Input
Amino acid sequence: MAARDHLRFWLIGLAVFGLALWVLKGVLLPFLAGMAIAYFLDPVVDRLERVRLPRWAATTLVLLAFAFAFVLFLLILVPIIQSQIMAFAADWPRYRDGLEERLAPLMQQLTDLLGQDSEDLQALIGEYGGDAMGWVQAVLEGIWRSGTAVIDLISLLVITPVVAFYLLRDWDRMVAKLDGYLPRPSAPTIRGLVRQVDRTLSAFVRGQGLVCVVLGVFYAIALTAAGLNFAVLVGLGAGLLSFVPFVGSIGGFLVSAGIALVQFDGWTQRGIVIAIFVIGQAVEGNILTPKLVGESVGLHPVWVMFALLAGGSLFGFTGVLLAVPVAAVIGVLVRFGLERYRASHYFHGGMAEAAPESQGEAATLPPDLDGAA
Output
């Protein structure tokens, strides 16, 4: 009966939490953004605190440095990106017609190989391509509406730094306070699960964020040096999309290859553009991801992609901010549940013997607070 009561308690709490998110989704954006900034910068503040700098002073210094870098980014890159977006929109018909002209022989060879009428194949591609683009457009429109309909840009810029400051200043005290409310019999297990979620998020969010920055800068500089039109826009976009592994490199490669196919007449410059993405992917897979993210963080790229799209569709930009933390929590809980299942009599056919595998770190960790969040 006690186990059933515990399960009912956690299910009711989860339902109330989900309902609160749904009801308050219109006003959560600046608070979630501030929480994300605080979580991202907390290790830096902890390091400054270890050199005897007061917590409030370390928080102020780190946030001022972060704000300076953000404003510098806006002042330098936003005008360039805006001008390239406008130029790309103006030149889009030319690039579209040029791609159709260049790819027409290839399409004809493909239709001959498949033994299918060219018009039917083009109509089929157009139908499915139109459906896919319509779905992506609907998701992006939902993110835009949900992200700006209730919370305008001014309130976001005003509230987010305040929330980030107070959360970052009081982070350790809040963790200790929450730990005091944990049910004592389950506290060691919950602490272990929280540590696993923290490691997953730290490795993925902080690590993958640094990977995105490095790749975005590399692609933008390299493509600009190669003479590709819209190089900064394409390079930074590829770096941003690299938050989901392989998506940024593949998307940036396809867009750059299409632009290079129309812009350049010879294969030398086209080959340089292709080589840039081959090098970028090699560096990401062999150096950046192992060093900054880690070999295994428990978040599969397909699962991350699904979480981001589902979160954006349901909650807009707020859902995008929640997607990766929720995906990490679900992943840790699923692995924990599977470990418990493999240690249970259901897995062993009713026998009382223990599973040969370890029953998981979460069930055996000591009840301390180190790394609890």
About this structure: The chain has one domain: 2-363. Residues 30 and 156 are 5 Å apart (CA to CA). The chain is about 80% helix and 0% strand.
